[in-house]
Amino acid sequence: MNPRNFLLTALLFTVFSLPSAVNAQQEGGTTSMLPDIDPQDIEIRGEFDVTFPGLSRQPILGFSPRQPIYRVDPDRMPFLESDDEIVTSVPISQLEPALRPDHHFFSFSERRNLFARAGYGTYQSPEVSIIAEAPVRENEHISLDFNHRSSAGDRDFSSFGDFNTDLQWMRQDGPTRWALGVNGASSFNYSALPGPADNNEDEVLPDPSRISNTTFGMHGKWQHLEHAYRGWQSRFDLTHFTGKGTTGDDEKSFNETNYNLYLNHFRDGRHQEQVFGFDLRAAGSLYDTIDDETQYWLTNAAGARYRHQFGYAHQVEAWLRFYQLYDPVNEFDLFLYPDIFYRFEGTGRVQASLRLRGFVENPGLQKLHAENRFMIQSDNELQHERGLQIHLNAGFDLLTDTRVFSGLDYRQYYNKGYYLRSQDPANPFYSYQFAEEAIHVEWYSGLTHRIPELRTKATFELGFNFTSMDEEVVPSGYIPYVPLVRGSAQIMSQPLSWLNLSTWLDFSGKRKTAAEDTEADGFFQLGMRSDIRLHERVGVYFKSLNILDQDYEVWHRYQEQPFQFYGGITLHL
């Protein structure tokens, strides 16, 4: 399909959805989908950094990582929260193909000092998750987040092991909050024979390949809020990442030391619902390639912010950021990029938004390895990815308990990274390459439906991707491993107070690789889970993954696991 026709069709559909969304707000209000929580607590929680343990990162279109500002009672002391919410029941569907399809669950549950889940699955697959918190003294706590999952595998598919833990100290002193922590992680991925090389169907690798890596880091946060519209926020992260890839007797190692610094200040203006602010960011990495060559990259940025609420329904936020970049290929560059966001919020849960921004990204080796567990960076230096994004989104209540939404996301890359599998049978890993220009357009639509009397909620979403890349660099002409069609569905039900049932289906269509005549097959992933509370403090759970027992590959030539069944216990103390 011609990219201009694709873009025009999707744009018209989304734009014409906006008047329907505005008209829908004239109809009766709807029942809130939020859990039964004190509204003031919800606002105060929004002022802090809250993360849900164990959740895999997923791209959320239109989501802005900057925290919102809420008007709250400045004299009200919020209860002290850890950075990790107690997790229980709501599924998060993998909208992109998962590394090992799994779903995690969380809810706004009762305050606990310990939440633990331990289970065992087919193919010798233990899994453990522990979230613990203990008071040190008044307004001072320590917390622990521990997660482990592994599988033995066999000669037909890959085996793996993942472990991560985070220990954190937190203190609340009036309007000021501190947090310090240390974290560590390790993983290994042992592949089955990945089969013949792409350019030689008769040559099979003699030995399996294995990749292992470890990470150690420390992090800290400081926050001072004079009131809801004035305050300071800062954080730092320092991590050291090492890895090793082995095929037969050939061993390749790599490492990276990464830092991130962030400082944000915001204050109220003369008019109501008006906020000014600025932020400073610095990130960098010192890394060694497998050829023992040391390189580094830097990303420094300074931004100014203006936010204004016009009445109840309209909000505008604008950032202007100045970037100073360095990487070994492009050396020093200077850029000035805007980030403009408009949101319409109707009284009947009607919402429409528009975002226009220039972006700069450099994930570093650690994040690339987390995304593709069979990647080894060779002698290619990391570069900054940058480009322009336009995002449109509209959603409104079609019926009392049914909400529909649609969106269009357009990205023009001026330097785009992609994964390329080696053609050398002695080195069957992926590396991260770069092309100067690429386009990625996605149009998505979906709906959510709620059945209050059955305490059931269902969500469905379908997306279509169009990508384009320089054919002189990538012969296929597509951004590799982006599904042409993707979809997801999930249903959560709590028919009884002691029983939670969830099911989900993720679909990934065919994905083009870098080769002109090679593509990865699409697949469906169906999963189910039940959580049963036997006692106030003890429960059991059962989980099934890949129920359709499909032979599928997330990364070309690496077979993933077939049907798996897990069972275990949960503790709430």
From TrEMBL:
Q: Name one GO cellular component term.
A: cell outer membrane
The record's keywords, sorted A to Z, are: Cell outer membrane, Membrane, Signal
Principal location? membrane
Q: Which residues form the signal peptide?
A: 1-24
Query: What domain of life?
Result: Bacteria
Looking up InterPro entries in the UniProt record yields: Beta-barrel_TonB_sf
Does the keyword Membrane feature in the UniProt annotation? yes
Location comes to: Cell outer membrane
Coiled coil stretches, renumbered:
none
Name of the featured protein = TonB-dependent receptor
Species this protein is from: Natronogracilivirga saccharolytica
Task: Provide the organism lineage as a comma list.
Answer: Bacteria, Pseudomonadati, Balneolota, Balneolia, Balneolales
